[in-house]
Design brief:
Strand content: 35-45%
Number of domains: 2
Largest sheet: 4 strands, antiparallel
Distance between the termini: 11 Å
Number of helices: 5
Order of helices and strands: EHEEHEEHEEHH
Number of strands: 7
Strand order of the largest sheet: 2-3-1-4
CATH superfamily of the largest domain: ACT domain
Helix content: 25-40%
CATH topology of the largest domain: Alpha-Beta Plaits
CATH architecture of the largest domain: 2-Layer Sandwich
């Protein structure tokens, strides 16, 4: 799964992206946005990565992509602290994280790490039971 990081240089860009994704029947799975240093940045997850790339290119909107992992953690106090402690214990810096959805008693969290730590993070989280397999991620789409 990939996250799209989009720097929104004008307030119309988000509306243009949303309308065109809708026209192409591309579902926004999750998104977040914030402003830092006067620049609005959006992070977008969709059910069609290639289609999203095409839409952003058609609109001439600058973006980058980053591979993410998805973990399922219990939706209870302390779980997120335990989850992030694993990264600290393995000397892996979290670059981003987002709650994608709540499913029953769990929260599915998308997160990114430095490219050089991706496989390491995937391996230790798989052993920990937090990481979702690629197959289970695809089934949720």
């Amino acid at each position: 799964m990939k996250q799209f990081v989009i720097h929104l240089e004008n307030s119309n860009a988000l509306a243009e992206i949303g309308k065109m994704l809708g026209q192409y029947k591309i579902d926004i799975v999750s998104m977040a946005g914030t402003t830092a240093f006067g620049v609005c940045t959006a992070v977008l997850f969709t059910d069609d990565e290639e289609g999203t790339i095409n839409v952003l290119r058609q609109l001439s909107i600058p973006f980058s992509t980053q591979d993410i992992l998805v973990a399922s953690i219990p939706d209870e106090p302390g779980s997120f602290g335990h989850f992030t402690q694993l990264f600290k214990d393995h000397s892996i810096k979290l670059l981003s994280f987002y709650i994608l959805r709540f499913t029953g008693k769990n929260a599915d969290i998308a997160f990114s790490v430095d490219e050089t730590d991706f496989e390491k993070a995937q391996s230790f989280l798989d052993v920990s039971g937090f990481i979702q397999s690629v197959e289970s991620q695809k089934k949720k789409k």
